[in-house]
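ligand=zinc ion
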Amino acid sequence: MRFYNSLTRSKEDFEPLEPGHVRMYTCGPTVYNFAHIGNFRAYTFEDVLRRVVSANGCRVTQVMNLTDVDDKTIRGAAAAGVPLKAFTAPFVAAFFEDLKTLNVQAAEVYPAATDHVPEMLELVRRLFDRGLAYRSEDGSVYFSVAKLAEYGKLAHLDRAGLRAGARVAQDEYEKEGYGDFALWKAWDAADGDVVWESPWGRGRPGWHLECSAMAMKYLGETFDLHTGGIDNLFPHHENEIAQAEGATGKPFVKVWLHCAHLRVNGEKMSKSLGNFYTLRDLVAKGWSGREIRYVLINGHYRQPLNFTFDALDAARASLARVDGCVDALTACAGGAAPEAAPAWAEAARRDFAEALGDDLNVPEGLAALFALVREANGALARGELAPGAAAGVLRVFDELDAVLGVVRFGRTAAEGALPPEVAALAEARAAARAARDWAGADRLRGELAALGWEARDTKEGQKVRKL
Ligand code: AMP
Ligand code: ZN
């Protein structure tokens, strides 16, 4: 495997620190709202990374934190007039449902920041011991960036611009305005009852501190991979490095990977710009998690991806092509035991593995998938495939799908075997729903029922089964 490391700004061969075991940390959601599909671009990219590592024979320990205390969650809870936990809990639950909708494999640990304040305070203590932390007049604790010679190495900051003693209190800020950042924020009235005791006074942790403390607790002081969207690189990840390496004197992370943004009309999709779709918005419009996953992974993760409804239409058509081929192969295999797949299937398997192992080149991987579809359709049309060989080709599909997660996902055996007139009605009904033509969708449901089939609308999209 080779990955582009944001730290060295180059593609590097990757070997886990512990042979056969990859430890990775992925910055999780700030649970003050439903995650938007921009966020899910990051989580699906991380899911592909995790699946590639597994496909290469390594065990994965992945930690994804839940940021359930920070500037944004506190503001949200105050605006809603409810305690912090009551405010964040529904968004945590929604997040896990959304991950399932998108067929994202579960991480091994999902630590919540509010459950790890003692670990964070211990980290602050270590930073005091090393002379890297200080208490300001208001009782907050800051990290002294001037005292850590390597501060800025991830974001390539211009240290000449460092203003000694300048401080930033908020969690998010621009590179130009960098200075000492808050590790521990002294209580103020806006925090209400969100407060913990500390040796430095009552307050709450800064966002950056949360991730360093939780990452080291579950993955050790040095681990393999750390990921996030590109907006996390500065200040969040820079500060995570400073806190961890400042405290331990050891390298924190071997390889940093960042995905580029999902955009809408050329702008970053974000809650603050208001130009976002949640996953739920799209599901309500009739798109399945499978189709949305396909759109989100269909681009190189380091290139910005422009979100459009045309891309969803194209995903639907591409998946229908894959489905048609898989169904025809299934029919041809007729339950036979898999035998050696033809050379073109082996070539697709090899091309796919090479593409994904080379810094997660999903577009090239999908090209290998569609080469497989093309060859299989041709061989089937010419009657060249024996049942065992067809089963062997299906096994290659499954191998590719172990990484892509879109071929088998969201399809039931029954759907694979829909009679053509039922399939046509089901497709028309899904299209009617996508166009918000509810009357048309109801009429088509009636027509399906008349043929003895039931259409149900689920999170993964429409499901059709025999009554
Ligand atoms: P947040 O909930 O804001 O902390 O973000 C959660 C994750 O989503 C982080 O890894 C962000 O970098 C990532 N993210 C936020 N907006 C986008 C976007 N438009 N495209 C891709 N990733 C994003
Ligand atoms: Zn983080």
